[in-house]
Write a structure and sequence with these properties.
Chain A: InterPro entries: DUF211, MTH889-like_dom_sf. The complex is a heterodimer. Chain A has 2 helices and 4 strands. Chain A is of the alpha+beta class. By secondary structure, chain B is mostly helical. Chain B has helices at about 5-15, 15-45, 50-95, 105-135, 150-170, 175-195. Classes of the chains: A alpha+beta, B mainly alpha.
């Protein structure tokens, strides 16, 4: 079994919600998640942000759904960190 | 999502809360001044306490105006706000190069106009009903031993003063000055009505 531990995402989002609310809503999508955000570029109506998400077991589908629900779109997955668990039966 | 959180989200994305607050004062003022004008007009034409037949006519005229103001506020705000919100959503979708219909922005564009329309329609209706209370329930106000029209005029002036106080608190100005300013407008309007209507 493989667990997703860390993701760095390139996201385009509207100005509203702001980065603080955007990350708080992302973090609320699951328990034990750390979310950090860096604004890369600001346009008239949008901004590009780099979001780093860390946790014991991330669920990409939930994260993606939360991003879309906030009106943002995922441009690319820039970094991924996964770990494989030791199979107890082998 | 809880109702309060949903309303807060709609308000944040569509700025409906600040628009609704503005509409509440604008249309609430319209309602209060219209009721005051009708009642002052009736009072000027017959300063004595109205008999049952006269009271029915006054209440019918005022209720008709209040309902019309409520319906006008509801429909006009919904039509204008839904067009505005739709246009803003389309602009945002063009910037995002994405369909935002299923997002919180789409939700705000759909429900924001209803929130604004509800406030815009209910404000004049509820404020009018408050001013009409002495005419709708004359027995409840009989303890005051005053003409119900005079009591309604005092309530109308009080409602307009409170709307001014509310405006003052929003803008950060001194509440008493703001309240007195709207009160002066209401008294001046009443004066013009008295001068222009036959006795």
């Amino acid at each position: 079994m493989v667990l997703l531990k860390r993701l760095v995402l390139d996201i385009l989002k509207p100005h509203s919600p702001n980065s603080l609310d955007f990350c708080a809503t992302l973090a609320a999508a699951a328990v034990d998640m750390q979310v950090s955000c860096r604004v890369i570029a600001v346009d008239a109506k949008t901004e590009s942000v780099e979001v780093c998400i860390e946790g014991a077991e991330l669920h990409f589908d939930q994260i993606e759904a939360s991003i879309r629900a906030q009106g943002a779109s995922l441009h690319s997955i820039d970094e991924v960190e996964v770990v494989s668990l030791v199979d107890q039966n082998s | 999502m809880k109702l309060c959180a949903r309303i807060a989200l709609i308000g944040e994305h569509s700025q409906s809360i600040s628009i609704a607050r503005r509409y509440f004062v604008v249309n609430g003022f319209d309602g209060a001044l219209t009721m005051l004008g009708i009642i002052v007009g009736f009072y000027h034409s017959n300063p004595g306490p109205p008999n049952a037949a006269a009271l029915t006519i006054i209440v019918s005229a005022c209720l008709g105006a209040a309902i019309a103001l409520g319906a006008s506020g509801l429909s006009s705000a919904y039509i204008s706000e839904s067009a505005e919100q739709k246009s803003e959503l389309q602009e945002l979708e063009a910037a995002m190069v994405d369909d935002l219909d299923g997002s919180s922005h789409g939700l705000a564009a759909r429900w924001g106009p209803w929130l604004v329309a509800l406030v815009n329609g209910l404000a004049p209706l509820l404020i009018s009903l408050f001013i009409l209370l002495p005419l709708l329930l004359p027995e409840a106000f009989s303890l005051l031993r005053a003409n119900v029209l005079e009591t309604a005029i005092v309530l109308g002036l009080g409602a307009i003063f409170l709307l001014g106080v509310f405006l003052g608190r929003i803008s950060g100005h001194f509440w008493l000055f703001s309240g007195l300013r709207t009160l002066v407008i209401a008294i001046a309007t009443s004066g013009v009505i008295i001068l222009c209507t036959p006795n």
